């Protein structure tokens, strides 16, 4: 289903779980549009090659995402 969706796919978090989900997506050729985290953790970070967004920023940039 994720491969077939036209919605942008976002991953929440910046830890081991995010890395595992990202790796599976990459292996299965599932495009990830971005990463977001809790507001208190977002301070201009980059993670896995993406700028880390707050939830608000993610919803502004991707109004109807699939969140993993």
In words, what does this structure look like?
- With 68 residues, this protein is α/β, with parallel strands linked by helices.
- Helix content is 28%, strand content 25%.
- It has 2 helices and 5 strands; from the N terminus they run E-H-E-E-E-H-E.
What does the overall shape look like? globular
What separation lies between the terminal Cα atoms?
Answer: 13 Å
Radius of gyration: 11 Å
Strand order of the largest sheet: 3-4-2-1-5
Order of helices and strands: EHEEEHE
The parts where pLDDT drops under 50 for at least 5 residues are none
Helix content: 25-40%
The percentage of residues in β strands lies in 25-35%
For this entry, give a set of tags.
68 residues, alpha/beta, globular
Please give the structural blueprint.
Blueprint: E1 9-12, H1 16-27, E2 34-37, E3 46-47, E4 50-54, H2 55-61, E5 66-67
Parallel strand pairs: 1-2, 1-5, 2-4
Antiparallel strand pairs: 3-4
Q: What's a concise summary of this model?
A:
Helix content is 28%, strand content 25%.
């Amino acid at each position: 289903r994720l491969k077939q969706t036209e919605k942008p796919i976002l991953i929440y978090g910046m830890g081991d779980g995010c890395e595992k989900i990202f790796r599976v997506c990459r292996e299965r050729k599932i495009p990830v549009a971005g990463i977001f985290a809790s507001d208190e953790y977002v301070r201009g970070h980059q993670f896995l090659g993406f700028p880390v967004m707050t939830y608000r920023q993610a919803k502004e940039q991707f109004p109807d995402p699939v969140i993993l």
